[in-house]
Design brief:
- The complex is a heterodimer of chains A (468) and B (486).
- By secondary structure, chain A is an alpha+beta fold.
- Chain A has helices spanning 7-13, 17-25, 79-90, 102-110, 132-144, 148-186, 188-193, 195-208, 212-227, 233-253, 258-264, 270-275, 365-369, 381-389, and strands at 32-38, 43-48, 56-61, 67-69, 96-97, 280-282, 286-295, 300-309, 316-324, 339-340, 343-346, 354-359, 396-400, 403-407, 413-417, 424-425, 440-447, 452-459, 462-464.
- In chain A, the strands form four sheets. Chain A has a seven-stranded mixed β-sheet. In chain A, strands 4-3-2-1-5 form a five-stranded mixed β-sheet, covered by helices on one side. In chain A, strands 13-17-18-19 form a four-stranded antiparallel β-sheet.
- In chain A, α2 crosses α5 (132-144), α6 runs antiparallel to α10 and α10 (233-253) crosses α11.
- With 486 residues, chain B is mostly helical.
- In chain B, α14 (294-300) packs across α15 (305-311), α19 (365-377) packs antiparallel against α20 and α24 (444-455) crosses α25 (467-473).
- The chains are: A alpha+beta (468), B mainly alpha (486).
- The interface between A and B is large, with 71 and 61 residues.
Chain lengths: 468, 486
């Protein structure tokens, strides 16, 4: 049955009053990077900036009220879907008419109309349990009544919590130092053989000490070791443990150092980052190079999207999101090769790389045309610069010179630069990809200290995104 | 300290750390500057500095033998552009290998081929033909991981360095270019090959059989492989060359068949299978009949070749599969055509639709297209566009909108859509295959008309099942690149 989208229908769809209230707060235009509609399919869609680095993609059908959002919420519909429909009812003129986006087309391609999101039978005398009115009035009243005393109390308790956290982490660092000394005594060769269990134990201790990011780094260390050639694993272990020593020293010297804090405790919240005067904001256009989605041992899924500035070939950015694996499979927010005319706000750091999306819009033609990759004379130099600023850095984007893909006698992939340059080992590439046999004029890769993961290859047949 | 001494010292230090450091380092093992820099962490500081030092000073160890991969051959035709690649990729990923082959054939006939980056999506088996554009790419895929040593634009003189797949493709290419050249290649090299390879090459020769092949086939009748001998005999039979059956075979044939008469007013001879005692006997009969030459079989049963088709007694429940396979392998064109007429338009409930493409493959392209066009309007056993495509094997280049929209298959497709309540998306459904088949067979204008027409049937404009049709409707004929061969 097709029913016109109304506020009453949205009320009826909302799973609870909380969802409606949250949706009401999301109606601010600043929250939405894009609002679009397509009359032919009766579809509206938008990109809503949530707490993560990537925006959530929300789509709804205004005729049968079907919806889909990429957020991990277990409420159906979620606040983003409700907000999108709500905004459409209140101001359809804010939605730009445009052809259906690819990801919207994919959703349309998978769904069957008519079943989803049917309004509940609330046509009788009884009012719906959820109210748009309550959702809009309530928060406004709450927002206007700011208790200054409460704010001061909150700040004081936050400072106290931070002190407690730092003290706890210091104790955790002492345990980490002891653990590192134990590994050094037994040797890297022994460590490599038992890395999984050994790392798991100290990672658990670091979690207890509230050093969540550091714990995760230690927990993932064995996976990183397994990714390199067996003969290189002791060397890689040496490097990784050495970096932990340096991070530990940096934390002890200055727990407020932004680079150390982000590597040990947590990144600042998005709101705090945007409010921080030191934050570096870089407008686009940005090119999406690819997304790596990895399930970590702690059950979280890490989604890392690499971007490169179209007009500044040496500037890269990393959007990183984490969500629970139990929330189900989540597609990448962006597709490789996509242009983003967005401003990125970088975390305060000596080598700014990690960022959050501030705004997004479709770039115009002029902005999108440039994008030639400019290789450095020594392709590993950016990694060394990165390490000199952040000695515990794990990954650095590189611009590689012209070359080809080659193989060694064991079937391992290598980057073979033209001329006299040194070859670089690569993570395994798609065995059947045609660009394996093409001349590559330039490339972008992520270097982890031992091997490179290809992100972009410029060939005579166009640009390939192996990780797209 | 010079650089090499320093490097050696680092290597020794690294070896010690990898092996384990039971106590503190000796002064000699650690660079002097590092000892000054070390704090209360002692050994851990050395570990950290060594790790960083290796990253700054050392380049990845270069293996002794590093070779670039074989170069990917340049496209032989205009490739699908960026605007169409999205449609292409989504469509081809959903297609079966058979449909993929038809889809690439349709594009090739208009002068287009897949973009190189989309080649990995093509899953057509190596022994199934593709447009000649793709020969070089197929060769590259066969040699993935090998270094650039073999010339990819191979000719007859390269035969000995080619893989089995490349030899097949070379023979097919030469055979298309000049049948005599292909025949000469086979005659020169086939005897040295294993039986399976000889058989597959002989099958390729069979695709363009001509009178000039008689001598070659005659020599193969005494081949050391029985399967090659049988195929050669079937190919000879297709050319109308007779090899009378020996008396023993003739006798057993007459035991397997039952010859009778039927009809009240117009009496006619009939032929049917005799009742055999058990499954083993029936299997033996079926195998033997399949391998016979059609003309000899007809003669043995007392009929002219085409007469045997019409004399078959359809009172049997099962279709005469061995006879049909025998006809597909060795009968002349008129017999094949007679069977197709019968199966397509008269005995429509035979249930052996899968055999029709085997039979129709024996006809030339205009004859296949003519049959397919008839199936659009005459009641036939082909109820789907996919079936039509399999029958024709090639796009229906002259099909008009009126013919299409008036066809039985179109009505069936629209009726199916009606049962889906008009709102369903056909992607991932049986209907998607029909739209893919349409995309493989329709001319450009007709594909555009279909897109317009389905919009009025509750279709969503963005339905991915229509991607192939969209690309079809946006792919005009373009001239071939000079020197390329479709």
């Amino acid at each position: 049955m097709l029913v016109a989208l109304t506020l009453q229908a949205i009320e009826a769809m909302a799973p609870d009053q909380g969802a409606l209230t949250a949706a009401g707060k999301l109606r601010k235009p600043a929250q939405w990077a894009r609002l679009s509609h397509d009359a032919a399919t009766g579809t509206i869609w938008g990109e809503c900036q949530g707490s993560g680095a990537n925006p959530y993609r929300v789509v709804a059908d205004v005729q049968d009220h079907g919806y889909k959002c990429t957020c991990p919420s277990r409420k159906f519909p979620c606040k983003h879907s409700l907000a999108l429909m709500w905004m459409f009812v209140e101001g359809p003129e804010r939605f730009v008419a445009e052809p259906v986006a690819d990801w919207v087309g994919d959703w349309l391609g998978r769904r069957r109309r008519g079943g989803a999101g049917k309004p509940e039978a609330t046509q009788g005398d009884a009012p719906p349990a959820r109210s748009i009115e309550a959702a809009t009035v309530g928060p406004l009243v709450a927002d206007t009544v700011q208790d200054e005393a409460m704010r001061v109390r909150n700040e004081a308790s936050a400072a106290k919590r931070r002190q407690q956290t730092d003290a706890s982490i210091r104790a955790g660092m002492d345990d980490l130092q002891q653990w590192l000394s134990d590994q050094l005594r037994s040797g890297m060769a022994v460590f490599v053989d038992d890395a999984m269990a050994r790392c798991r134990r100290i990672a658990a201790r670091l979690v207890d000490a509230k050093a969540a990011v550091l714990a995760s780094r230690v927990d993932e260390l064995p996976s990183r070791l397994l990714a390199v050639m067996p003969t290189q694993r002791p060397q890689a272990a040496l490097h990784e443990l050495g970096q932990l020593v340096l991070l530990m020293q940096a934390w002890r010297a200055d727990p407020d150092d932004p680079d150390a804090r982000i590597a040990v405790v947590q990144s600042p919240a998005r709101e705090a980052l945007l409010a921080d005067a030191r934050t570096l904001h870089v407008p686009g256009p940005w090119e999406v190079l690819g997304t790596e989605i990895e399930t970590r041992r702690d059950g979280l899924v890490s989604q890392s999207t690499w971007l490169r500035h179209r007009n500044d070939a040496g500037r890269f950015a990393l959007l990183q999101d984490f969500f629970p694996g139990s929330a189900g499979r989540r597609n990448a927010a962006f597709s490789a090769g996509q242009d983003l005319a967005a401003t990125l706000s970088f975390h305060h750091a000596r080598h700014p790389l990690r960022a959050v999306l501030n705004t997004a819009a479709v770039p115009d033609e002029q902005q999108a045309v440039s994008g030639a990759v400019m290789p450095a004379d020594d392709p590993l130099q950016p990694h060394r610069v990165h390490l000199s600023r952040v000695p515990w850095a794990l990954r650095t984007p590189l611009v590689l010179p012209a070359g080809r893909i080659g193989r060694d006698s064991e079937g391992r992939d290598w980057w073979l630069p033209e001329g006299q340059g040194s070859a670089l080992p690569l993570t395994a590439l798609d065995a059947e990809a045609p660009w394996r046999g093409m001349d590559i004029s330039a490339a972008v890769a992520i270097w982890d200290g031992f091997q490179a993961r290809m992100l972009r290859l410029d060939t005579a047949h166009g640009v390939a995104y192996p990780n797209g | 300290m010079d650089e090499s001494a320093f490097t050696t010292q680092l290597q020794h230090l690294q070896a010690r750390i990898i092996a384990g450091v039971p106590e503190s380092y000796s002064d000699a093992a650690v660079p002097a500057d590092w000892m000054v820099a070390s704090d209360e962490l002692g050994g851990l500081s050395v570990l950290a500095m060594l790790g960083q030092c290796r990253q700054f000073l050392a380049y990845p160890l270069q293996p002794g033998r590093l070779l670039p991969q074989r170069g990917f051959p340049a496209p032989q035709a205009k490739t699908v552009d960026d605007a169409g690649r999205g449609w292409f990729r989504r469509a081809i990923a959903e297609m079966t290998p058979e449909l993929q082959a038809s889809w690439l054939e349709m594009l090739a006939r208009r002068g287009w081929m897949a973009h190189p980056f989309d080649w990995p999506l093509v899953r057509v088996p190596q022994d199934q033909p593709l447009p000649a554009f793709y020969d070089a790419w197929r060769g590259w895929s066969e040699h993935i991981g090998e270094e650039a040593s073999v010339d990819q634009d191979f000719e007859a003189e390269d035969w000995n360095v080619l893989s089995a797949g490349e030899q097949r493709r070379l023979l097919r290419r030469l055979r298309r270019r000049d049948p005599a050249e292909g025949r000469a290649l086979f005659a020169t090299h086939a005897t040295a090959l294993p039986a399976a390879q000889r058989l597959s090459l002989l099958e390729i020769l069979g695709e363009g059989l001509e009178a000039g092949d008689e001598g070659l086939l005659e020599s193969l009748v005494t081949d050391r492989s029985e399967k090659v001998r049988q195929l050669a005999a079937q190919l000879r039979a297709r050319l109308g060359l007779r090899s009378p059956l020996d008396p023993a075979r003739l006798e057993s044939l007459q035991e397997w068949f039952e010859i009778g008469r039927a009809g009240l007013i117009r009496r006619r001879d009939t032929v049917g299978f005799a009742s055999l005692k058990n499954a083993v006997q029936r299997r033996t009969r079926d195998e033997q009949v399949t391998l016979l030459a059609w003309d000899e079989l007809a003669t043995a049963l007392g009929h002219a070749p085409v007469e045997l088709v019409h004399a078959w007694n359809w009172n049997d429940k099962d279709p005469p599969l061995p006879l049909l396979q025998c006809a597909a392998a060795s009968a002349g064109r008129d017999v094949v055509l007679a069977w197709l007429e019968l199966l397509l338009f008269e005995r429509r409930d035979h249930g052996v639709d899968w055999l029709l493409p085997m039979l129709s493959a024996r006809l030339d392209e205009p004859a296949r297209i003519s049959l397919a066009m008839r199936c659009l309007h005459e009641p036939s056993c082909i109820g789907s566009f996919r079936g039509l495509l399999e029958l024709a094997g090639v796009p229906l280049g002259n099909l008009g909108e009126r013919q299409l929209f008036g066809s039985l298959q179109w009505r069936a497709l629209m009726a199916w859509l009606q049962t889906q309540d008009g709102h369903v998306l056909v992607a991932n459904s049986s209907g998607a295959v029909e739209f893919h088949a349409l995309a493989c067979m329709l001319p450009m204008e007709c594909a555009a008309a279909v897109l317009q027409a389905v919009g009025g049937h509750g279709f969503r404009a963005a339905d991915p099942a229509l991607d192939a049709l969209r690309l079809n409707s946006n792919t005009p004929d373009v001239p071939l690149i000079e020197g390329s061969q479709r």
